[in-house]
Amino acid sequence: MTVTASASEARSRPIQIWLLIWAAALAAVLVVFLLQDRLPWAVNYPASAVVPVADWVSALMRWIKSNLSWLTRSITAVLGVPLDFALNLLAKNFKIGHGTEAYVLPRLSWVGVCAAAFLAGHAVGGRKLSLLVGGCFLYIALFGQWTSAMLTLALISIAVPFCIVTGLFAGIWAWRKPWAERLIVSPALDLMQTIPTFAYLIPMLLLFGNSPVSAMIATAIFATPPMVRATMLGLSRVPSEIDDFSEMAGCTARQKLWRVLLPSARPTLMVGVNQVIMLALNMVIIASMIGAGGLGYDVLLALRALKVGEAMEAGLAIVALAIALDRLSQAIAHKQAKGHVHQAINPSFWRRYPNLTLAIAILIVTTLLGLFVPAFAAVPKAITFTTAPLWKAAVNWVTINFFDTIEAFRVALILNLLNPLRAFCEGFPWLGAVFLLGLAGYQLAGLRLAVLVAALTAFCAVTGLWEKTMATVYLCGISAFIACLIGIPIGLMAARSDRFEKIVTPIIDTLQVLPSFCFIIPVVMLFRVGDVTAMIATIAFAVVPAIRYTNHGIRQVPPALIEAAKVSGCTPRQTFFRVQLPLALPEIMLGVNQTILMALAMIIICAMVGTRDLGQEVFIALSKADSGRGIVAGLAIAFIGIVADRLFSAWTAKARARLG
After folding, report:
1. pTM for this entry
2. 38-75 in b/e burial notation, b at 16+ Cβ within 10 A?
3. Which of 323, 111, 285 shows the shortest CA–CA distance to 198?
4. Other CB atoms closer than 10 Å to residue 37's CB: what's the count?
5. d(C-alpha 132, C-alpha 320), whole Å
6. Which helix (H) or strand (E) holds 103?
7. pLDDT tens for residues 281-318?
8. pLDDT digits over 315-353, tens only?
9. Which residues pair with 95 in a beta bridge?
């Protein structure tokens, strides 16, 4: 008894010390806030002490543009060749010659592309997938979005292979050189994944101009990290027995890598390919602002003109393309994981790949028919539909009948929740925030994390962006908090009921493949522009990880522990709250971490609908081609994400260690 009591006292003593430290720290911050008349520099960062990082970055970009223009022109010329070919093949026509003597070769027939999509789905997933994929492409054609969708698909078809090859080699290098992974690759990936998408566009616009090549390069930078991470993870998970066997068989290092390790890691690599495709699609939509064209540009124009119907139709076409590409790439990954056996030892090409052969034949025949039959070359207007008037009528009906209710809800939310929270965040002393976050880092992981967190937080202040930073934190924080309040209970219910999980899974799968643009459109229809619109769209976008990780965490609790709890006499409720939930808590917190990062990414895109934060700063910089202003604001956003990620990761690691 005495030993047990002394052990519990020893464990509680550090907790009591940290409670006292935190109480003292919060009291000190409160004193600074109350004495802001005497200590104004500790509350609001002095304008005279702002470090002109934005000016330095702008000067550097101007120097690069003037002195390395030959390099950017060369890159544009090289990348422009395959990109122009893809654009001509799918969306435009090939022009051979000049003037009146020019010959025009048609693009691929829409009938052939739809048939090829149907055959691709059938080849990797059977009848159901073929109907889904083929149906998505047919939907795009019949609703008059074919040319725009093919522009988007052409960019993806060039950007994705570039991302896969680049990510594969970078991942192999990082796997072989742990120092490179620790010092170069991981920090670079963190920045690439947390810097907002708009911030990629500004240097691309300045260096490569307003062109599809700029959009493709920005897309490649944004979509490459999942492939790098998947390569490192896949190679590290290859069983050591396979590695040893390849060495015993006399393989060289190169043979072992390409013939043994990479084929063994193929399932994980295909998951990375799927993520690359989805991120590339998301980024191509956003890159429409700098010359990509396509569906994203249609959505952007419609939103600017407040044409709800046209925006919704283009948005649904994006959804259809996203679902088709996602399901197709997932099915290919699943098939690669299962493996397959050829029927013959050396079969001919058409016997090994009958669906591919048939698809190529159909594409050739239908494209040639397009020279003589216009209906094969372009989608006839007579068979296309439009739902734009219906969407407009629906929005008008909702506005007329529910305007008072919606407006009352919006105003109440702004006055009672958003405005007070915004005022609190914007008035919070910058020095206090740096100190408290540094203290949290020190408690969770020691001095190294404390210095990193404090330095990244201080960057937002010393660059003169503290008020905008806190506006971003307020909106991201409240959105992520509400997303967790909604998502975690849904995840808990899904974990306890297989029937409920079957209902929830298709919904969150659909939400996950929707590009971020598509969350804004319906909310703008009802709530107009402003913080409420941004918050609701962000909650819808960021709720998926909270649901998925909670469900996964509860279901991953070892059955032996649950049986032990039942044997000990625990009721189902006690088993859930005292065994399953505590053990799943680290996994749930990982979901909270991902929810915060997704909320941060969406908040930046919501700058298009009138938010006044760092996203607006990046958006203004993009419109003015001010590279320094946009990149510094993008770095501030990235540092918010890195601080949140590092603190939550450290907390999760500590919780896992405590729970064994």
Report:
1. 0.79
2. eeeebbbbeeeeeeebbeebbeebeebeeeeeeebeee
3. 285
4. 7
5. 9
6. strand 103-105
7. 878 777 777 777 788 888 878 877 777 788 888 888 88
8. 888 888 888 888 888 888 777 656 544 444 456 667 777
9. 104
